[in-house]
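Example complex used in Figure S2.
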Amino acid sequence: MALSDELRDRILQSVDDGFDAQLAYTKKLVNLPSLRGQEHAIQDLVFREFQSRGMKVDRFDMDRDAIMAHPGGSPFSEHHSDAPIVVGIHHPRNETGRSLILNAHLDVVPEGPHEMWSDAPFSGEIKDGWMYGRGGADMKAGSAANLAALDALRRIGLQPAATVYVQSVVEEESTGNGSLMTYLRGYTADAALIPEPTGNRLVRANVGVLWFQLKVQGVPVHVSDMGEGANAIDAAYGVIGALRRLEEKWNAEKGDHPHFEDAGHPINLNIGKIAGGDWASSVPSWCTIDCRVSIYPGTSAADVAQQVRDCVADHARNDAFLANNPPEVVVNGFHAEGFVLEPGSDAEDVLGAAHEAAFGAPMEAAMLPGYIDTRVYALYNQIPALCYGPISRNVHGFDEAVDLESLRRITKTMTLFIAEWCGTEAVA
Amino acid sequence: MALSDELRDRILQSVDDGFDAQLAYTKKLVNLPSLRGQEHAIQDLVFREFQSRGMKVDRFDMDRDAIMAHPGGSPFSEHHSDAPIVVGIHHPRNETGRSLILNAHLDVVPEGPHEMWSDAPFSGEIKDGWMYGRGGADMKAGSAANLAALDALRRIGLQPAATVYVQSVVEEESTGNGSLMTYLRGYTADAALIPEPTGNRLVRANVGVLWFQLKVQGVPVHVSDMGEGANAIDAAYGVIGALRRLEEKWNAEKGDHPHFEDAGHPINLNIGKIAGGDWASSVPSWCTIDCRVSIYPGTSAADVAQQVRDCVADHARNDAFLANNPPEVVVNGFHAEGFVLEPGSDAEDVLGAAHEAAFGAPMEAAMLPGYIDTRVYALYNQIPALCYGPISRNVHGFDEAVDLESLRRITKTMTLFIAEWCGTEAVA
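Predicted assembly (856 residues):
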């Protein structure tokens, strides 16, 4: 049942009316440096926001055993967050519409060297229509938009006529265990929407992601006898070369994967972090490399992990240092499959109509080459899982920013989508 | 004036008689983890040992300005030790012999991962004729031997008939500024002896050493757009490749350098330490590499530093990431020239005779491809600078150890050398 023109216009106006408050709340979220393991304060803030809106709130810890027993669960390293998951629950007076999950993560990746930022990394400053700060685009703007959309309905005396779960999770940047935990807790709905910064587009297909740590450790020869490749740092670099060849093999197979044929380089191996050695004048005995690689939908993380282990073992057998010191491959984070959002769902149709009303142009869909929690809802809840959000700049980089005009229109799309998907009823 | 057979035999016996006490003291030194900047306690222990033997003791800090103004001074990084230098001074009643500097350093390099050691890294345990522990060979055994040689003379009622400076320094493993400071303080003598673990051989020629840190930092492309070489860690490895080519050029020139022609690979570039990136799923924006490279005698450290800078700049111009983010080369430690001990000095002759008496075989001389403080005395004091000490295993590695039978004989050589070089007089 499409929205009336009158209701549509009231909703669009209501989002505009609430936008300053929405930005103030977004900035408040950005100001909190919610790095991995440091999301306690921000999750408590969200808990109070949910309560203050009259929602019931379910706050729970991650169940390590249940997560580890699930094929989509990622390992718990020493760095795993123990911040709680918070779910705000809206129940209508009359359950007449389709239920919905609105999800957002509040963990952010490290901000890196501060001197690389134009302003303080968690400033939330607005300049020329962009809000700057680590985590602003990815995805505190989305987290705030989830609430802002419900607030926009309430401002005109309406609320969803179906159950809505507003899920605030952590561990999206390292394992995906937070959203997986909402599934394991038993939450489900008729559709899920995650407003990650997708550039105003819907995610049609999405890679899985594997994290692994390569640990090279062993007894090197003495510095006075050393030649090239005879130490752990040189040896680790050799392993990277072998992994890059595996990466190229995977990219050469892109034609076999619908929605990936036209991507230039869909599978990326990122050598994200490295540490090795103790002293400039000692031959390094150890080197540890943190890697992230993407995975085509339909390929399991376990399979890719095995391919990585085989690649490393094959290389090591022919390396002077590594043959005697075989490197270890430790999966220490993401162990997640990708997904494809099959076209033609009602949820996508409703979102597309809402987008067109907000933007005056048809919604585009595209492949996203990074991890998103939508995979939990697509693969395990098996419901339409929509990832759709604003335009961003420099996500995971310096001067991360979100485009505020885009955010305004995305919030309009979201509010229209909720109103049509869930239906509306008068606030009591 | 050669020693009488009778005096020689009494000296050899006296070293044997004191050897248990010498080992106990050596173990005490090994037990103190005197890493860079953490040599305060051990230098105070040595101060008291000097005092208890009736020496005058001069304890002084390094003069940063004087060191930096000297061409052999190395930069003071944030890690530079502020432990004092301690010089014990023996004055004879009648100054009839030739004066001598006995030098040793007490700073040690990091022990690395403890699980790579068979025993605790600072145990000082003795097994099968070897004493184990970080810094035992390099060079606490030598430091203890300096005192043990004087103790051996005293045990038979003798003392050197010339001024002897026993210098206990730090910063030998990172800058060489400690021994340089003794020169700048004004200390000099007719010869210097440093019992580094040289395998019972005299050091004929010795490389200089340059430390530099390569700092790669800049804005990488986004992970979804990245290709090989487009991040700071990949880019840093590219620079290492360029530096390895420079290293090979230097090694190809070994025929031009007397005492280096027959060495397999006299110039070693060690990539000793690496750190970069913040997060597996973020493209790394920075990577820092700590390098050490050796230098032929006669080539200045400043010249080699310039060659390194030119090499890095040339490479950077042709690299996708580095052309926009030129790496920095920071000399942050050793900036030291090598030296050649020209054959034919009286000091070498006297040491050779002493060695033959202790070992029953002629002393051999060899090139040493690592830094030693002897360069200060050779290049700046311009006195015969003898580096000669025991057999070792795994210096800068795991299970570092010193051969105790070798140490006993080295101590005998040293005591005989002191007796003949300085002459002896009865203790008052």
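The two ends of chain B are 23 Å apart (CA to CA). The longest helix of chain B spans residues 5-31.
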